[in-house]
Specification:
Order of helices and strands: HHHHHHH
Distance between the termini: 60 Å
Strand content: under 5%
Number of strands: 0
Number of helices: 7
Largest sheet: none
Helix content: over 70%
Radius of gyration: 20 Å
């Protein structure tokens, strides 16, 4: 597999050379992981979690190379996993939404985030993503509501942490 790598910044430096080498090593490692997990999935196609791992690897590859085909492969795998989990896994819905956000498909991302929000797992993570999507879609009132919700949740967590610290200090 040939990999084309372009660099559009800076001059030659040790850091520059290291970053290129590191990126190439990362791509090589990700490709090995993809091969490993694909082999495992082919041997045990009922293991739906392998689809999520493969999707994650393709998403990482996209982050490094910018090849849209990798993002599409991740999307396909996530949609297949979502189907196998009967759309009842909020983490998969958030992963699909993250993929769609990368593709600037905000309305579709919103659909999956609303499902994730209904399922209730990792509410803060979902609310942060909803805030982002509402802003992208120009739904500023809804974005403001989400920001208030996020702030309330974070404040509650901070209060609990402060109480725990004080309790530990008293002991």
């Amino acid at each position: 597999m040939k990999i084309k790598l372009g660099v559009f910044f800076g001059g030659k430096s040790v850091e520059h050379e290291v970053s290129i080498i590191t990126a190439l090593q990362a791509i090589e490692n990700i490709n090995k992981e993809i091969e490993f997990w694909q082999t495992k999935f082919d041997a045990a196609p009922n293991q739906s979690s392998y689809l999520i791992t493969l999707a994650s690897q393709y998403s990482q590859l996209f982050e490094i190379t910018g090849k849209i085909d990798d993002l599409y492969k991740a999307e396909k795998l996530l949609l297949e996993a979502n189907e196998k989990f009967v759309e009842q896994n909020s983490g998969i819905h958030r992963a699909i939404a993250r993929n769609y956000i990368s593709q600037h498909r905000f309305k579709e991302a919103l659909n999956h985030l609303e499902k994730a929000d209904e399922l209730g797992e990792n509410k803060i993570g979902t609310q942060k993503m909803l805030f982002d999507v509402y802003m992208e879609l120009g739904n500023y009132d809804l974005a403001k509501e989400k920001l208030i919700d996020i702030t309330k949740d974070i404040m509650i967590i901070l209060i609990i942490l402060i109480m725990l610290i004080k309790k530990l200090q008293l002991e």
